[in-house]
From TrEMBL:
Location relative to the cell: Cytoplasm
Gene Ontology cellular component annotations, sorted alphabetically: cytoplasm
Primary location: cytoplasm
Stretch forming the signal peptide: none
Source organism per UniProt: Chimaeribacter arupi
Name of the protein in its database record: Universal stress protein E
Pfam families: Usp (PF00582)
Organism lineage: Bacteria, Pseudomonadati, Pseudomonadota, Gammaproteobacteria, Enterobacterales
């Protein structure tokens, strides 16, 4: 059940406005719990200060950490004064997503919230490498918060997979719907809608098989998806008007319906493919994410194993001095 009580907010170091913190405060005020305002910072120039002793470099890093912690405290002052329990933590780490996931694993956080930026011209949300790594690897749900106000009467749209091609789809569908309904009830009785997409007739089949009837094929596929959606919604007592089965690609159907419904958040499952598997097979979830214009809440299957947790359990060889990071979180 989505009774998120131990929230980690990834602070954006480059701006004073913190939409993810606001969303976390809203959840805590309605749902209870506590917040950790978390920032990972790193500047390779501090590691290259060879004229300083190790102790002096450590003191310099600690000074930067203290400075940023004071800045975050200022951002949180209004909420803390209002009685919202917020802990502030700043760490020195050259990979922000690893720092966040390590904190989640160590402190058993049950929800991560992070701001996403909106592309001014396209109105679509821009996801950074840190965002993608969190969506793929973080063991707890990840809420990507759009840097725009929550729409008036915003709804929750749950993207479900009705094809049943893989054994994990059915339990993941149940988890997505049950957690979203629980969260909606606990927070503000937000309307919850379900959406499933089914494929169009493959053009090559229609061309190669003269006797193939595309309309019969489409009707059969739609019928299968409607039956699967009916079975799913009946498990939760949802009305037919709250479910949507649409023809087309998920990356087109889901964002279009979210915009039509003025959804505040789209909830979907991600199995966390990484490496070669993600590069060659792709991930439908990630194609959907690229087209969204609203908040996103991504959940993993119950049997998901965080790759960082698996690495921690393996014996490691001694490491050398840190190498230049692939992505920095600049220090102001």
């Amino acid at each position: 059940m989505a009774n998120y009580q131990h929230l980690l907010v990834a602070i954006d170091p480059n701006q004073d406005d913190q939409p993810a913190l606001r969303r976390a405060v809203y959840l805590v005020q309605h749902n209870g719990g506590r917040i950790k305002a978390f920032l990972s910072i790193y500047d390779f120039s501090y590691e290259m200060t060879t004229l300083l002793s190790p102790d002096e470099r450590t003191a310099m890093r600690q000074g930067v950490i203290s400075q940023r912690a004071a800045w975050i405290s200022e951002q949180c002052r209004h909420y803390i004064d209002a009685g919202v329990p917020i802990e502030i933590k700043v760490v020195w780490h050259n990979r922000p997503y690893e720092a966040i996931i390590q904190e989640v694993l160590a402190e058993k956080h049950d929800l991560v919230l992070k701001m996403t930026h909106q592309h001014d011209r396209l109105e679509s949300v821009i996801f950074t490498p840190t965002d993608w790594n969190l969506l793929r690897k973080c063991p707890c749900p990840v809420w990507m918060v759009k840097d725009q106000p929550w729409p008036e009467g915003g709804k929750a749209l749950v993207a479900v997979n009705l094809s049943s091609e893989e054994p994990y789809h059915d339990p993941l569908n149940l988890k997505l719907v049950s957690e979203t309904l629980a969260l909606a009830k606990n927070v503000n009785q937000t309307e919850v809608h379900l959406v499933g997409a089914y494929p169009v007739t493959p053009i090559n089949i229609a061309i190669e098989l003269p006797d193939f009837d595309p309309s019969v094929y489409n009707d059969a596929i739609r019928g299968q998806h409607l039956l699967a959606m009916k079975s799913l919604r009946q498990k939760f007592g949802l009305g037919e008007e709250m479910t949507h089965v649409e023809k087309g690609l998920p990356e087109e159907v889901i964002p279009d319906l979210a915009e039509h419904l003025q959804a505040g958040v789209v909830v979907l499952g991600t199995i966390g493919r990484t490496g070669i598997s993600a590069a060659f097979i792709g991930n439908t979830t990630e194609h959907v994410i690229d087209h969204l214009k609203c908040d996103l809440l991504a959940l993993k299957p119950d049997d998901f194993v965080c790759p960082l947790e698996a690495e921690q359990q393996e014996p490691k060889m001694p490491t050398a001095e840190p190498t230049p990071p692939s992505e920095n979180n600049p220090v102001a």
